[in-house]
């Protein structure tokens, strides 16, 4: 049986220190399969401008992810959560030769709702996080945690642990990630690639 490396790409404001608490990710470490966990914030060494998105070229996040996986002997399994799924999807679109399987968890081709598209969140949610980040990092991260946890409540003590886990992620990295979430729209390129795949499979 050909064993393939699995790369799990965590989303905005999520880091590897929280990995042991993610049972859905831990369950992938079976049959000796290598599991590599990376946050979108780990991908880009110099975050300035990494949040910019242009549908005609891969984002800096996707480029850096491709650099990581292309060194593997065989194409890898990519598992992306939220923004991590968007970056994984980008990577699979631009470098399909490096990806054997793509699994998206709570992810979409566009994070925010747009004209004729209601599968995301309201743009005001992302704008609100951006504005809050500029005033108070802690308040923004608390707000994000509460949004993710809905409709349940956060476990006692989790918020402090979460904020501590993110201490090495800079404000600039967080703001760049929010800009990516606000701007990224891969609907057209995904549709184009799917139509091409259908033509070749007939």
Structural class: alpha/beta
Low-confidence stretches: none
- Could you tell me the number of beta strands? 4
Major sheet:
4 strands, parallel
Major β-sheet strand ordering: 2-1-3-4
Structure description:
With 202 residues, the protein is an alpha/beta fold. 46% of the residues lie in helices and 11% in strands. It has helices at 23-26, 40-43, 60-69, 83-94, 123-135, 137-149, 158-165, 171-183, 187-201; strands at 6-10, 35-39, 76-81, 99-105. The longest helix is centred in the C-terminal third of the chain and has 15 residues, at 187-201. The chain starts with 5 loop residues before the first strand and ends with a helix. The mean pLDDT is 86.
Précis, in short:
With 202 residues, this protein is of the alpha/beta class.
What key phrases describe this protein's structure?
alpha/beta; 202 residues; 46% helix; 9 helices; four-stranded parallel β-sheet
Question: What is the secondary structure topology, with strand pairs?
Answer:
Blueprint: E1 6-10, H1 23-26, E2 35-39, H2 40-43, H3 60-69, E3 76-81, H4 83-94, E4 99-105, H5 123-135, H6 137-149, H7 158-165, H8 171-183, H9 187-201
Parallel strand pairs: 1-2, 1-3, 3-4
Helix pairs in contact: 3-4, 5-6, 5-8
């Amino acid at each position: 049986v050909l064993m393939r490396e699995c790369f799990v790409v965590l989303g905005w404001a999520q880091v590897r220190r929280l990995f042991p608490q993610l049972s859905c990710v831990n369950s992938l470490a079976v049959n000796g399969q290598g599991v590599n966990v990376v946050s979108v914030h780990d991908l880009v060494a110099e975050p300035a401008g990494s949040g910019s998105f242009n549908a005609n070229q891969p984002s800096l996040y996707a480029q850096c992810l491709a650099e990581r996986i292309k060194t593997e002997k065989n194409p890898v399994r990519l598992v992306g959560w939220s923004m991590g799924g968007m970056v994984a999807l980008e990577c699979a679109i631009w470098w399909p030769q490096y990806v054997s399987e793509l699994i998206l968890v709570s992810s979409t081709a566009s994070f925010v709702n747009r004209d004729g598209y209601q599968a995301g969140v309201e743009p005001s949610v992302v704008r609100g996080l951006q504005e809050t980040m500029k005033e108070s990092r802690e308040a923004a991260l608390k707000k994000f945690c509460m949004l993710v946890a809905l409709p349940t409540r956060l476990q006692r003590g989790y918020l402090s642990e979460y904020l501590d886990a993110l201490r090495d992620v800079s404000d600039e990295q967080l703001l760049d990630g929010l800009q990516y979430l606000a701007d990224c729209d891969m609907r057209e390129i995904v549709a184009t690639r799917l139509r091409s795949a259908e033509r070749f499979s007939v």
